[in-house]
Amino acid sequence: MIECVPNFSEGRDRTVLEAIRAAAASTGARVVGLSADPEHNRAVLTLVGEAETVLEAAWAAACEAVARIDLRRHRGVHPRMGAVDVIPFVPLAGDSMARCVDLARRLGRRLGEELGLPVFLYEQAATRPERVNLAEIRRGQFEGLAAKLADPAWQPDFGPAAPHPTAGAVAVGARPPLIAFNVYLNTADVTVARRVARAVRGRDGGLAGVKALGLLLPETGLTQVSMNIVDVARTPLPAVLELVRREAARWGAAVLHTEVVGFLPRAAAYRAAEWALQLPGDLGAQVLEDAAGLPS
Amino acid sequence: MIECVPNFSEGRDRTVLEAIRAAAASTGARVVGLSADPEHNRAVLTLVGEAETVLEAAWAAACEAVARIDLRRHRGVHPRMGAVDVIPFVPLAGDSMARCVDLARRLGRRLGEELGLPVFLYEQAATRPERVNLAEIRRGQFEGLAAKLADPAWQPDFGPAAPHPTAGAVAVGARPPLIAFNVYLNTADVTVARRVARAVRGRDGGLAGVKALGLLLPETGLTQVSMNIVDVARTPLPAVLELVRREAARWGAAVLHTEVVGFLPRAAAYRAAEWALQLPGDLGAQVLEDAAGLPS
Questions:
Q1: Cα torsion B243, B246, B248, B253: sign
Q2: Could you say which of B26, B99, B252, B294 is the most buried, measured as most Cβ atoms within 10 Å of its Cβ?
Q3: What is the pLDDT of residues B175-205, one digit of tens each?
Q4: What is the DSSP string of A223-281?
Q5: Which residues are in the Formiminotransferase N-terminal subdomain domain (chains A, B) (predicted)?
Q6: Which residues of B touch A237 (CB under 8 A)?
Q7: Are residues B117 and B133 in the same domain?
């Protein structure tokens, strides 16, 4: 089984989102969820299924997004470079990263050749080290794409060396599961959220398995520490939240609430409970439904 | 499906515990676990299966315990009155409390008539209000049983009005799922554990869904707040822990670690993570394995 979690640069127009969902579902893949965020103006589609089915579903959804989303008119607080911005393939239990790399390369070739999108392969599918990190690929965003693609170091892995006029470019990759975890702060001062993000993310000395951005949410007048937990097994979510809470408190801000965008592995929920409850053992071994093999 | 969670007054002798486990397993019931605590000198067997199978397994395990455990020589920090001390039946999803009450009464009758045990029906199976609460039935423990059974108000529901010489008496009942949750404190002063227990339990003004005892653990020189979370849906485990932590801190004590004895419902693990993570929504709806119908 393979999971695919394409991100689209539309988080407001339900007609467009339903069209993307329907295109994916028409292939027979299981659409586990579609999570849209109006302030990010972005949506995350979660697909699960057999490899070839998921590949077709990701292709169908990407075609719909390229046909319907115009980046020239897109405003949102989350960085983005394309109508279909990023398409990661994730191996689920029993499947392999190698298969996901193969899917990413096949989908990337097709997106480049048939839709005319510049395609960057990233993470485990990357063709060079400086393209492993999605943030590096996306730096400059849609508005900076033409200049970036003119740089010989940023020739795409597939497709033309010029942005698609309305759909920009896309990153396609293979990676382990991650958790998109956002923490809302009760301050409108984005410098606080940015300082907190810097303190908690591994790149700047924080938790090794955490990527983080500080964002202003203009609609609500709040700020958000928007994180990817990329080392799910070794990064307890409540430990991340505690660090965010303490760093925010340094600047007089408090945590309003949090959110998980899309889905998280069940084991991460159990690890969170273990941490919060000071349980030394494996909570999963003590969950009745798991131990007794009962239906969920 | 029915769960049955008999408690036995033996937590040290592996031969006795294995005999009890084997007796239960020989009936075809699923023995999900057997959790023994040497300081409590007590063990919890968790059985799951179809109603009649679980009934036979509980009977077989009780026979083994009555044959092998001698309460006259039993020492342990947890209150107890019988070799097989308490036998609760619990309805799992799709099954009913009425069926569990019926099982409790049938097993109680058989334990009284065939093993000569005084039997008290409790909780949903109780025959009078003062026998709903297990703590009331067990008050006086094994050593006080003869006097208690001489009181007309404490005639057993089944079996003789005198203690079994080695096996005491047994409480058999039907109840919703509960979580046995113990918190270890870094103090040898049992008055601290008792004050904390009093502050957190519903009977004395604490959390309505919590029962609690403060216990001294002589082997380790620690103390324990030993709790039953009886209103699982409305009592988040991390909230219980925070209250214990704050009450213990009043007396200068801290929480070393916690334990769940036996099993807990998966939903309780998810509720714990939600509370700890300040997630306003239903985490279960965002667990990939649940949402995508993947195997556990």
A1: positive
A2: B294
A3: 999 999 999 999 999 999 999 999 999 999 9
A4: EEEEEEE--GGG--HHHHHHHHHHHHHHTT--EEEEEEES-B-HHHHHHHHHHHHT--S
A5: 1-176
A6: 273, 276-277
A7: yes
Sign of CA dihedral B239, B191, B211, B58: positive
Query: pLDDT tens digits for B216-227?
Result: 999 899 999 999
Beta bridge partners of A36: A43
- Select from B92, B238, B262 the Cβ nearest to the Cβ of A277: B238
Domain count, chain A: 2
Residue A260: its chain B contacts at CB < 8 A?
279, 283, 286
Of A2, A38, A16, A46, the residue nearest A180 (C-alpha): A46
Q: What is the SS3 assignment for A294? A: coil
Which residues span the domain enclosing B36? 2-174
Query: Can you tell me the ipTM of this complex?
Result: 0.89
Give domain status of residue A295, yes or no. Answer: no
Please confirm, yes or no, whether A40 is among the known catalytic residues: no
Contact (CB, 8 A) for B124 and B188: no
Residues lower than pLDDT 50 in chain A: none
Residues in CB range of A125: below 8 A, 6 or more apart: A89, A100, A101, A104, A105, A108, A172, A173, A174
Query: Rounded to whole angstroms, how far apart are CA atoms B173 and B155?
Result: 16
If contacts are CB pairs under 8 Å, which of residues 203-242 in chain A contact chain B? 237-238, 241
Distance of CA A138 to the CA centre of its chain: 13
Which chain B residue has its CA at the smallest distance from A291's CA? B32
Beta strands in chain A (DSSP E): 2-4, 7-8, 30-37, 42-49, 84-91, 119-123, 170-174, 179-185, 210-217, 222-229, 255-261
Residues A190 and A170 grouped into a single domain: no
Candidates B32, B280, B291; nearest CB to A32: B291
CA torsion sign for B266, B268, B272, B274 is positive
Give the residue from A5, A266, A271, A290 with the most B CB atoms within 10 Å of its CB, the best one to mutate.
A266
Per the prediction, chain B carries an average pLDDT of 96
**CB contacts, 8 Å: A286 with chain B:** 33, 260, 262-264
**A38 and A73 both lie in a single domain:** yes
Q: What is the DSSP letter of B208?
A: T
In a domain, B170, yes or no: yes
Identify whether residues B35 and B138 lie together within a single domain: yes
How far is residue B37's CA from residue A48's CA, in Å, rounded to a whole number? 43
